[in-house]
Design goal:
The structure is a single chain. The chain has 277 residues and is mainly alpha-helical. It folds into two domains: 7-86; 152-274, Serine Threonine Protein Phosphatase 5, Tetratricopeptide repeat (Alpha Horseshoe). The chain has eight helices and no strands. Helix 2 (149-165) runs antiparallel to helix 3. The chain is rod-shaped.
């Protein structure tokens, strides 16, 4: 009986130990699984955090690049606008010169026509006639025609003026200068001085142009070219940045020659200058 009890007790002990060992093994397996799950979750979280950080950094870089590109675009646009402004200013300047040249040409044509017509009328009315009905002192038929001495200056001036109208300003300047040396007593001297001064303006010799036009004003105050000379002086002063002097010249022109053809243009120019502060 005692032996049986011992055997039963031993069996129970073995069963208990087996159950405990199985439970412990199960418990150990569960911890390992949880540990691996936690490790996997931690790894996934770390990867997620790294991805989010990379995305945030990429967004910053993209924003920085966009800012740089936008800044460069604005800078390029600003440069283009400034270039267009300069081009418009140059075109305005060229237009002013062209308009001034047109006005000057029209006035010159009127003056030249009037002067030539007057001279021809004097010649026609004052030429003596011989008994045979032919003008006195008529050269032989085979002799080359010689223009009267007083008409040579007209032709010389017309040649110089034609060069100026053709925008051959260097040649025109030389022609006007030659005219003034060859015909210092001609009635066309004021016109030649003005033409030379205008050629100097077109050649951007603004200081010389002012000096030449001042001669028209000082030496030939009764000439019809004085208003044009003063207007050209003002334009040269503007080109030299002498805005105050240009205003003064234009005011003097408007005051002294209110009915001159160039006066309306002088008023517009003065108004534009007075708007500059």
């Amino acid at each position: 009986m005692a032996v049986i009890k011992k055997l039963v007790f031993a069996g129970l002990t073995l069963f208990t130990l087996a159950s405990f060992t199985s439970a412990h093994a199960a418990l150990f397996d569960d911890k390992e699984a949880r540990k691996k799950i936690l490790e996997l979750e931690a790894k996934q979280q770390s990867n997620h955090d790294a991805s989010m950080a990379a995305i945030a950094d990429l967004k910053k870089r993209v924003a920085a690049i966009e800012a740089v590109v936008q800044g460069q675009g604005l800078a390029d646009m600003s440069n283009q606008i400034e270039a267009l402004k300069q081009e418009v200013a140059n075109l305005k300047g060229d237009l002013e010169v062209a308009l001034h040249a047109l006005d000057t040409t029209q006035q010159r044509q009127k003056d030249l026509y009037t002067d030539t017509d007057t001279r021809l009328r004097k010649l026609e009315s004052g030429a003596p006639v011989a008994a045979n009905g032919t003008p006195a002192n008529t050269p032989p038929a085979n002799a080359p025609a010689q223009p009267p001495a007083e008409e040579k200056d007209v032709k010389a001036f017309a040649d110089a003026d034609s060069l100026s109208k053709s925008a051959k300003h260097k040649e025109a300047f030389a022609a006007f200068d030659s005219f003034l040396k060859e015909y210092p007593n001609s009635k066309l001297v004021p016109d030649a001085l003005y033409g030379m001064g205008y050629s100097q303006f077109a050649l951007k010799n603004y200081k010389s142009s002012i000096a030449t036009q001042q001669k028209v004003v000082d030496l030939h105050p009764a000439s019809a070219k004085v208003p044009d000379a003063m207007f050209n002086m003002a334009n040269s002063q503007i080109q030299l940045g002498q805005v105050t002097n240009a205003r003064k010249t234009l005011r003097s022109l408007i005051e002294k020659f209110p009915d001159a053809e160039v006066t309306p243009n002088a008023k517009k120019r003065l108004k534009a200058l007075e708007a500059i502060r």
